[in-house]
Design a protein that fits this description.
Order of helices and strands: HEEEHEHEEH
Low-confidence stretches: none
Shape: globular
Distance between the termini: 34 Å
Oligomer: single chain
Number of strands: 6
Radius of gyration: 14 Å
Strand content: 25-35%
Helix content: 25-40%
Structural class: alpha+beta
């Protein structure tokens, strides 16, 4: 298993802000996931003019699923300014639906704070 510091370094290396054309930009946010197996998966965001893109976490999850894994132990995302950022609400919900155990995944929220995903999803509708 690797540390959040190592995961953050990997994420920083993936940042590559690019304007593909007047409708699409990518590489402004990078995410790194560590699975139960210890394997690391990465992704970057793709933003489109009509909201059809996806977050870096979605890209990393697609990579993870492609390799037959679903259980996340740790996740971190960084933006082009070097700041650690928490997953948005859509990503939080997506992560929790991939595997119910992901509710226990450690999320690096900012430089000082790590929380389990469950604390970022209060009143989870799947528990009702």
């Amino acid at each position: 298993m690797i540390s959040f510091d190592e995961m953050e370094n990997i994420a920083h290396q993936l940042i590559s802000p690019t304007q593909l054309n007047k409708y699409i930009k990518y590489g402004h946010v990078a995410a790194v996931i560590q699975c139960e197996s210890g394997h690391i998966y990465t992704g970057m965001n793709i933003d489109t003019a009509c909201s059809m893109g996806f977050c870096a976490e979605h890209g990393a999850i697609a990579d993870m699923i492609k390799h037959g894994e679903t259980q996340i132990i740790k996740i971190i995302a960084v933006n082009k300014y070097g700041a650690i950022i928490p997953p948005c609400g859509r990503c939080r919900e997506f992560i929790s639906q991939i595997n119910r155990e992901n509710i226990h995944a450690e999320v690096k929220v900012n430089q000082e704070l790590v929380l389990p995903l469950g604390e970022l999803l209060p009143f989870d509708w799947k528990n009702l």
